[in-house]
Amino acid sequence: MFDAAFWVAISFFVFVLLLVVKKVPQIVLQQIDNKIQEIKNKIDQSENLKSESEKMLSESQIKLDNSKKEYEEILAKAQKISDDEIANSLDKMKLSLENKEKAAMTKIEQSKNDAIYQVKKIATEVAVETVQKVLTENLDQKKQEEINFNKLKNSLEKIKNFN
User: Fold this and answer.
1) Where are the alpha helices (DSSP H) in the chain?
2) Are the CB atoms for 124 and 159 separated by under 8 Å?
3) Both ends of the chain: CA-CA distance in Å?
4) From 15, 56, 69, 139, which residue has the greatest number of CB atoms within 10 Å?
């Protein structure tokens, strides 16, 4: 009466009825939905991490750029200070050389003036001695005294004017 195919069909319908009664499809769907939601959460979390990483990268890049600018500014300031110090040192050296040159010229001029003074003094002394010698040999006593006195007076005035 009932063959094996009939019983297989009945068991299949009973099995499907049990699944529907026990809400197995809903449980399976709920598990699938939960897995989908879990995957979506992980994707969202990954996207958040990615955006945070990009934000941190951007901030780090800005800091790096600022550091480079600061480095260049510091380097430029140091170069300017160095250049200023070099220029200042050169100016001081030039001024020192000019002062030494002026001092040397002053010493040379002073030595020249001293030498001229000494020559004039010696020439004056020689001239006075020569005049005295000539006068003593050629003039009488009273005339010699008068001439000596006048010459001595003139020589003293010249020496006073010379100094």
Assistant:
1) 4-21, 24-138, 141-162
2) yes
3) 168
4) 139
